[in-house]
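This part of the workshop introduces the protein records we will be handling. The question running through the whole workshop is how a given chain folds. To make this concrete, we reproduce a full record directly below:
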Amino acid sequence: MRKALVFLLTAVSIAFSGLKAHAQESWVIGQSVPLTGGNAAFGKDIRDGALAYFKSVNAKGGVNGRDIELVSLDDKNDRKQAGENAQILLRDNKAVALFGFASATLSLDAMPLAEKNNVLFFAPFSGANPVRKASPVVFTLRASYGEELEKMLSFWTGLGMKQVVVVHYDDEVGKQNLAVVVDYLAKQGKQPKSISLQRNAKIEASLVNELVKLQPEVLINTVLSGPAAEISRQLVSRGLVVLTSSLSFVGAQQYITAAGEAAAGVSIAQVVPNPTSPIPIVRECSKALQDSGVTSAMNSTHLEACIGAKVLTEAMRRAKKPGSAESLLASMNGLGDYDTGGFVVSYASNKHHGSKYVVLGMVSRDGRMRN
């Protein structure tokens, strides 16, 4: 009798523990971003914008009774490390989605892993071609770089500018960005010139000398904030004024901070609304950031990450099986049109790119983005 009672109590204890563990399960969202190194400011803003929104959701009880846990690993802006981080997030952390990787290059080795594991790869901070190729698991939030580049090239060529010089990385993604400009200008009988950079390499005076020799009427930046800012500073220090536009990839606030006064007059493509806009999603994300302890003013990177987090949260809410990667992916495929609060995205099984929104903003003399 005593043995039977002990067995019964043990079984009840195990069952209770199992229920308790089940109740404590969370939606684990995996993220690899540069948190150290030359692009750390960009990576931290991506993390902080997403984390702020997830915290606001958790404060209200989570999603279907489960908290959202954002696991952010540092990839130091290194492609190999980003791939290794993706493996860790999927294997060890059991992430139900990979979210907000900081570039196409950092996504290249992670996307095949997500596809192999049938896990959603959502909202990489890139509009480059590699993240827009057909894939059953890759969904983007922002417009393509092709759409950004066409916007800025249409503006400058419409003003009669002819000599276009593209600054790009000497890798797969960088060369594809250059190819978009080449194809666009070819339709007008024009041929751009270009300067290629190695990722994470220092900008030497000799490179700027080479750039100046090309006599650009318009400079198109497709590189990160650090090198773009250094080029701007060196041009200004030589007393040169070159009309400049940058892809959203530059990270507007990160570029403005790095370039200082040399940023004035530079136009930057924006793929989300202005962070000072009065629309509901901007107000919601601004409050979430403040509540999470971020003291700096919200920038476009924060906002894009926050919007992405809200879209991902909505997909979690609609998932038929809470905490399931497979169910979350199916939910994203059926999301349809979703208004985040003045910024609308749309997804379907045959439509994995949520937005085509692009506006050109310009940096004012006081260091603000003006749309």
